[in-house]
From TrEMBL:
Gene this chain is encoded by: Mettl27
Membrane-crossing segments per the record: none
Domain Methyltransferase: 70-160
Alphabetical list of PANTHER family matching this protein: METHYLTRANSFERASE, METHYLTRANSFERASE-LIKE PROTEIN 27
Pfam families the record matches: Methyltransf_25
Name of the molecule in the record: MET27 protein
């Protein structure tokens, strides 16, 4: 029953990060988790990086090699692998955990990596710098607050894409509802338009029975793709 066949140590490490009381505490947990992170998420069958990269690639106009992408909360580089496989070559990453960044650096997939605690400080990038921005897995209860959306938009070029994910498991539903309100407000204000909101049933394995979708042993999640609205040219007409 409980833990859905996952090793207890994996369940414990995942739970600890989600429970982490304060941000410094959580970042310390991520630092300590960095070495085991990739094998743990493989055990979880964590599909978000693959699903997000596939969705972004589908929306993104060719050519991809020259496009500049920012991978926010990049972790060890799982999203970069998936983007790289799909022809994206100019990847920048930021993360709040130095331990995770060290792993990401060792992949050789990023042109630039910076330490940045999103929600506490602005992104280390000028306005309208990126063709696309991804935030995969970090938008959740006790992690990156939904108030960061305008900062993500700030560094995105007009016409550029934003690829965001969140989980739909019970303990994240309040956060997800808040996120969707914030996403909708930005859409109503004309900041961006929604291209995709794809609910995915088998997002990753549940670490606890009560989180699992209808007893499947998995939790569900969602991929959102938005396009930043182009700035109108005033000289026209």
């Amino acid at each position: 029953g409980t833990g859905m066949g996952l090793p207890a140590a994996v369940r414990e490490r995942v739970a600890a990060v989600h429970r982490g009381s304060t941000l410094p505490e959580r970042l310390r947990l991520y630092d300590g988790w960095a070495a085991r992170y990739e094998q743990d998420v493989a055990a979880l069958e964590y599909r978000a990086p693959h699903l997000a990269a596939a969705s972004l690639a589908f929306a993104f106009p060719a050519p991809r090699a020259e496009a500049r992408l920012l991978d926010v909360a990049c972790g060890t580089g799982l999203v970069a692998w998936e983007l790289h496989r799909r022809g994206f070559r100019c990847l920048h990453g930021v993360d709040g955990s130095a331990g995770m960044l060290e792993r990401a650096r060792s992949t050789g997939l990023y042109q630039e990596l910076r330490l940045c605690v999103l929600g506490r400080e602005p992104l280390p990038a000028p306005a309208e710098h990126y063709d696309a921005v991804t935030v995969v897995g970090a938008l959740g209860e006790g992690q990156v607050p939904s108030t960061v959306l305008p900062e993500l938009l700030r560094v995105t070029k007009p016409g550029g894409f934003l690829c965001l994910t969140t989980r739909s498991n019970p303990s994240n539903l309040r956060y997800k509802a808040e996120l969707e309100v914030a996403l909708g407000q930005l859409e109503q204000s004309g900041a961006w338009q929604k291209l995709l909101a794809q609910e995915v049933e088998y997002w990753e394995r549940a670490t606890a029975e009560e989180e699992s979708t209808q007893g499947t042993g998995y939790i569900s999640g969602v991929v959102y793709i938005y396009q930043k609205c182009p700035v109108p040219h005033l000289e026209e007409g």
